[in-house]
Known about the structure:
The chain is an alpha/beta fold and 403 residues long. The chain has two domains: 7-66 and 300-401, Aspartate Aminotransferase, domain 1, CATH 3.90.1150; 83-297, 3-Layer(aba) Sandwich (Aspartate Aminotransferase, domain 2). The chain has 16 helices and twelve strands. α5 crosses α11 (258-266) and α13 (301-319) runs parallel beside α16 (388-401). α10 (225-232) links the parallel β6 and β7. It is globular. A seven-stranded mixed beta sheet has the order 2-8-7-6-5-3-4, with helices on both faces.
Amino acid sequence: MINRRKTLKILAGLPFIGGMAASALITKPSGAKLERPKYSRDFFTELGLRPFINARGTITALSGSLMLPEVMEAVNYASQQFVSLNDLQDRVGERIAEMLNCEAAMVSSGAAAGMTLGTAACITGDDREKIRLLPNLPGPEREVIIQKTHRFAYDHAVRNCGIKLVEVDGPEEMEQAINERTVMMLFYNAASEHSVSKVEFVAIGKRHNVPTFNDAAADVPPVDNLFKYTEMGFDLVTFSGGKAMRGPQSAGLLFGRKDLIEAAKMNNNPNADSIGRGFKVNKEEMLAMMVALENYLGRDHEKDWQEWENRVDRIASAVENIPTVETEQYVPAVANHVPHLRITWDEEELEVTPEEVREKLRFGHPSIEAAGGGNSLDLSVFMMQPEEVGIVGRRIREELTSG
């Protein structure tokens, strides 16, 4: 649990959300349909789509994570009443900022939108004329400094603001690159290499009075990441809401310095003439994101971790006595930082490749999405439903022995 007095005080009145209970290995045939909640219409079947067991993790293209019942309750509550979006954004932001022990916060339409809005805030401040003109501001092109090893596909969200990304390698180059056109410094938290550490990065920004932004979109767990970067001194931080926090897939958090959050809101929906007008966050998502964060902070994270390790062990035990098969538990360094299972085998002996197994899992019944490269089958277990763990183990065993 989090040892943070203020956060625990805020959460004291909320229902405690415990870890997921382990379930016994189920015995129904693997071809049976998964037990899903019953609805009056099966929309995915109507549309010719097949739901799947998620053994890959919180992947945006695979719809992220599943919202918790408490989060859906907030969605349903908000869907039946009208409220001012600006007022709700303010109140929800204040509650989130209290929970995260930071100056200010807002709900964005995902982490990428948070990056655009945070960048816009650093450029415009509260200048309404600049907000209206962005991204086509007159004068010299504004610049955002980024490490060469931190360039990534999502920095397009920053470039949306009409800036130039200036690549640097090391603290000295970073200091030399700062000039009167520099509006922000961007840190990609999931980068595998850092020529400038987080501590150095923040120190340089403070020394030159340049706002620092940490994109930590998928970087919980561990839960402490929600606190450590603002405590470290980053001016802005963004996280996805529809991953481990299990909020709406189309929501995220942007938080940090109060003046910048207020400027980000001015650049955002529902303000008509703004770069963020299309980043609409509805009342349901705002309330749901607040509840998702309450739930996430209130969980027993050690118990969750034990449950995930148990799931890895159960799937590994289902295949461990197959000739040449080897299993390994590993934890990715940053994003999806939870126990995973890697399975390898002699492809000639079993007459099947990892890619063939992934394809058979994807097009089998029920469908299973797995990860890995040319030499292994990799499984993320933390987005599985408890009753799905046994199915995954049995299906993999079937495919490895069918040759």
